[in-house]
Amino acid sequence: MNTARRIRVLMVDDSPTMVNTMAALLAQEPRIEVVGRAGDGNRAVQLARLLRPDVITMDLLLPGLDGPGAIAAIMVDAPARILVVSAVADRGAELGFQAIRAGALELIAKPNVSSADELRRWGRELVQSICLMAEVPVVSRRPRAQMAPPPPTTGARVDIFGIAASTGGPPALSELLSRLPKDLSVPIVIAQHITEGFTPGMVQWLGKMTPLTVCLAREGDRLEAGKVYFPLDGNDLTIERGIARLSRTRGGPCPSGDLLLSSLARAYGSRAGGGVLTGMGDDGARGLLEIRRAGGVTFAQDEASSVVFGMPRAALEIGGTEQALPLSAVPDFIRMFCSRPFDRLRVGRNEGEGA
Q1: pLDDT tier at 294 (50, 70, 90 boundaries)?
Q2: Angle 199-207/169-178 helices, nearest 10 degrees?
Q3: What is the CA radius of gyration of the chain?
Q4: What does the mean pLDDT of the chain come to?
Q5: Rounded alpha-carbon distances, angstroms, from residue 169 to 41, 152, 163, 223
Q6: Domains of the chain, with CATH numbers?
């Protein structure tokens, strides 16, 4: 978008106090202009059509048409970049992932603050998210044609697949995981950037979309075939000899795709598989390169099917992979390299080579 003009924001929330608080915080940012306010879902759809804002902040528990319903209608009639700002408690997390499936880009928890300093800190995070969202292309929700993955160039087989994702990741993961079989012969480990507080809801939501078992990894868990593992809120996940290791994130993307994928390269060598899905920035690119250098299997989501092509582009540019796949091709690609009985987790670079 043209960065010379202000970012036009429509705020949707049925709480006058919350709307006034957000408006006051956003008024301190010269790059942002609040162009409208709506207190219910139907009014939000009307104003989205009338005002054509750059970004919409959307609460989910609304009178009349709820947040996911309003988002679905907006993405059909007046597509916009939608940032969910909602409470995590009660139905907030569940509705949040319904909203993302309908077309929202990101989730932010409403502030639970006890001081003016904490509120200002949350306001800075809100401003940063809106400014980042304003740079994301508005994505059509039209279904894409199914495409077959390219044939494998070697007889490689893997013992584990790791995936890094950010903006647009939850719906991409939903599509991917829903098309993998219950008897998948390897575990899958995932680093999905997400606001702290929403991880349990995401795991629960994804668990309803796939025959695989989706769970939160805990320190010391031994990975099992046919299970999908996410780290606990605010933690990075790495794998050592088939065991989950958790550590608190220290700055940067949370959780780190680079840390996760690099750990697979060290632990599994040529038996590691990795991929980078849609997302901002370059997290995951260096970890994917380490897997490739170790002889493992790698892929990145292609530009046409990505909500944001930042992370996949970075992986392709540094040589982390040569495979740019449409999202529809990723499940079959993973299955190709997992089509053998899973007997044990091989951990050494040379262990089991050529098996």
Answers
A1: very high
A2: 30
A3: 21
A4: 88
A5: 25, 25, 10, 22
A6: 7-133 (3.40.50.2300), 160-336 (3.40.50.180)
Q: What is the pLDDT of residues 323-345, one digit of tens each?
A: 999 999 999 999 999 865 444 44
40 confidence band (pLDDT: 50, 70, 90): very high
| DSSP labels, 281-322 | S-TTHHHHHHHHHTT-EEEEE-TTT-S--HHHHHHHHTTS-S
| pLDDT at 139 (0 to 100) | 64
Residue type, 60: L
DSSP3 helix / strand / coil % (the chain, rounded to 5): 35, 20, 45
What pLDDT is attached to residue 167? 92
- Rounded to the nearest 10 degrees, the angle between the axes of helix 92-102 and helix 67-77 is 10
Q: What is the dihedral of CA 206, 196, 102, 43, to 10 degrees?
A: 150
- Whether the predicted pLDDT of 2 surpasses 70: no
Closest to 347 (Cα-Cα) out of 158, 202, 113: 158
The CA-based angle 195-199-204, given to 5 degrees, is 145
Whether 163 contacts 191, CB under 8 Å: yes
Q: Cα-flanking dihedrals φ and ψ of residue 156, to 5°?
A: -60, 145
Strand partners, 238: 245
* pLDDT tens-digit series, residues 238-281: 999 899 999 987 778 899 999 999 999 999 999 999 999 999 99
Q: Which residue has the tokens 């065991």?
A: 243
The residue to which tokens 């897997």 are assigned? 291
Task: Phi first, then psi: give them for residue 271, nearest 5 degrees.
Answer: -90, 10
pTM over 0.90? The answer is no
Helical ranges in the chain per DSSP H:
16-26, 41-51, 67-77, 92-102, 116-133, 169-178, 199-207, 257-268, 285-293, 310-317, 330-336
- The neighbour count for residue 211, using CB atoms within 10 Å, is 14
Name the 3-class secondary structure at 139. coil
Catalytic residues: 166, 193, 283
